[in-house]
Amino acid sequence: MGFAGLKEAMRNIKLLIEYDGTNYSGWQLQLQKPTIQGTIEEKWKQITGEKIHLIGSGRTDAGVHAIGQVAHFKTQSLLSLQAIQRALNSLLPPDIVIKEVKEMESDFHARKMATRKVYEYRILNTPLPSVFHRGYVWHIPQPLDLEKVKKATQLLIGKHDFSSFRSTGTPTKTTLREVYRAAWRRNPNGLIRFEIEANGFLKQMVRAIVGTLIEVGRGKIAVEDFQKILEAKDRSRAGPTAPAQGLFLKEVKYKKSWDID
Known about the structure:
With about 260 residues, the chain is of the alpha+beta class.
């Protein structure tokens, strides 16, 4: 289409994105591998001819999904917000949808200004797997003692060093994080949802927590031992990392609104 109009001042555009991470190597741009960031940047270039750098609120790993990922980019395009949404959704594959487009103040930053994130993990606790949940749950056929799991989960609330639930490979200034809430609920059909809200998460932290809590539910780890694992600051003491396909980035929260009326 060519450039859709240029002006000196760069616009700051915020996207609310939903995606199925099954066919992607995570959020972050990678050479010769499909990623969410790379796919959206490529489609924007097709629309406007402009190369952008799309900054997400955080990275999601390969196979992880998002209901409410937030990202922003600077552009010189004069396309209306409605036109941006329509154009991107018309070119993006069906497993990525732009749910909302907003113009923000120039200082808005999707990652640096995020104050809280909410993740959801889904488990199907039934004897047989479901065709229709395939790719979106961790199927566990064995019985789980959810009451014990809930007791151990409450030990996560507050500010802790979460080194025991951190995968190596991504440097971070601190392993301290504050968890504001964490809760489980089971539906009659065997679908179990775990929701956790914190001021930030370490690499694969939610999946490591879930994997360890499921060991509590299976009777392999006692509730009091879960406390010891948390305090140990040692990943080798915790349980396995839960599969990626059950994890969803549900919501990213910000202190204030930078929207331009």
